[in-house]
Amino acid sequence: MQEQALIPLLKTNAGLFSPVVPFLPLKDPLLQFDFTSANEELTQAILQDTKLFIEYINQKLSVAGAKYGIGGYAEHRTVYSRSDLFGAAEVSHRSTSTVVKPEPRRFHLGTDIWGKPHTAVMAPINGVVNSFAFNDAFGDYGATIILAHKLNDISFYTLYGHLSLSSIKNLQQGEFIKKGDVFAEFGIPSENGQWPPHLHFQIIADLQGWEGDYPGVCKFSEKDVWLTNCPDPDLILQMVKYARKD
Questions:
Q1: What CATH number does residue 205 fall under?
Q2: Please, where are the H alpha helices in the chain?
Q3: Alpha-carbon distance 145 to 210, whole Å?
Q4: Range(s) of the domain holding residue 240
Q5: Dihedral pair phi/psi, residue 2, rounded to 5°
Q6: Structural domain includes residue 195
């Protein structure tokens, strides 16, 4: 299967990829964030207020002297409680008068890079624009671009979420994006789904017919299926090894 071949392919070609954001490993401090329940500083009051959430991110980066924050792949997060987009409505069963609350989506399938608004986003490898969209629900991706790639005859995709609206303003489906080209930038909350400025970067083996969107969060009970199709973004980013924990 293509999904099984993709991980070894990316590992073999680890030295081929260009940076996705301007990052100098030996110069730019990098902070690893934790958005699980273990992070007791990240309260519901902060999560429900975008301004407070931005202040939290910026304060953490400032104290650490870090240019970027990073993390989130395969992380079971509390952060998605801030949006109904990742939950599920309670269902009442008239016959038994019981209320069932379906499992929410909390398991993250990409890597987030937190930084300043308008930070440049670059293509790690040659690709073409598969699709793009403005996913404008609260907590969603906001402006989103998906690139299609082919490496050693194996096709795969990379998704870039929480971008600026200008990133998709003049974009064309099928447009060629050269390795290393700046083709997008981090958005502000009104453009990025009401999040602190950051990039959601995700690798996808099979896009399964999605256009301009693809789930970046799944149910914990379904994680094994989703992780098979969405391998570790750091296979391309090669950043996490430089990060220090908060």
A1: 2.70.70.10
A2: 2-12, 44-47, 50-64, 166-169, 223-229, 234-237
A3: 12
A4: 29-245
A5: -60, -40
A6: yes
Give the pLDDT of residue 47.
87
The string of DSSP letters for 131-187 reads EEEEE-STTS-EEEEEEEEEETTEEEEEEEEEE-THHHHT--TT-EE-TT-EEEEBP
**Side chain identity, residue 145:** I
- Distances from the Cα of 150 to the Cαs of 154, 155, 158, 235, in angstroms? 5, 4, 11, 16
pLDDT in tens, 221-239: 999 999 999 999 999 999 9
Residue type for position 244: R
pTM tops 0.90, yes or no = yes
Query: What is the number of residues in the chain?
Result: 246
Total domains, the chain = 1
pLDDT at residue number 245: 83
The torsion angle over the Cα atoms of residues 41, 47, 50 and 54, rounded to 10 degrees, is 30
Q: For 180-192, what is the mean pLDDT?
A: 97
Q: How far apart are CA 214 and CA 202, in angstroms?
A: 9
Confidence band of 93 (pLDDT split at 50, 70, 90): very low
Given this model, what pLDDT does residue 56 score?
96
> What's the CA gap between 59 and 71, in Å, rounded?
17
